[in-house]
């Protein structure tokens, strides 16, 4: 009887991990209206980069550059591949905060927080650290399509 009880305790601890998948994690690829974002962990913090731009070229057919960056030395770096999210800390099972997000369209950096809702990720960027003056973008987990 003790052996059965011990087995049940061990299984109850292991089964949630066995059935867990990427749906409960923000790590991986997320689709926005204009890009595929890769979210990854480094040194216990969450970062994100613009892995794939849906329109990677400018009007002249050249790769889009970070031309509005306030640091002139960074204005020639490509937007595709750009790390634009950094230093998010996990606050709960579904929330990450304390991070920053950079918008290469205007060269500005904002306070940001992330909320995971099923297969959707809600990223709120704001000019204030409380998230009162800002906007929220909803991303969906990216699934490669067989073509």
Descriptive notes:
The protein is mostly beta strands and 147 residues long. It has 1 helix and 8 strands, in the order H-E-E-E-E-E-E-E-E. It has an 8-stranded antiparallel β-barrel. The longest helix is centred in the first third of the chain and has 18 residues, at 2-19. The radius of gyration is 19 Å and the shape is globular. It starts with a helix and ends in a 6-residue tail after the last strand. Residues 1-23 have low confidence and may be disordered.
CATH fold name, please? Lipocalin
- Under the CATH scheme, the architecture is Beta Barrel
| Secondary structure category | mainly beta
Number of domains: 1
Uncertain parts? 1-23
Tell me the span between the first and last alpha carbons: 54 Å
Helix fraction bin? 10-25%
- Mean pLDDT across every amino acid position: 86
Number of helix segments?
1
- Tell me the major beta sheet: 8 strands, antiparallel, barrel
Query: In which order are the strands of the major sheet placed?
Result: 1-2-3-4-5-6-7-8
Strand proportion: 35-45%
Radius of gyration from the alpha-carbon trace, in angstroms: 19 Å
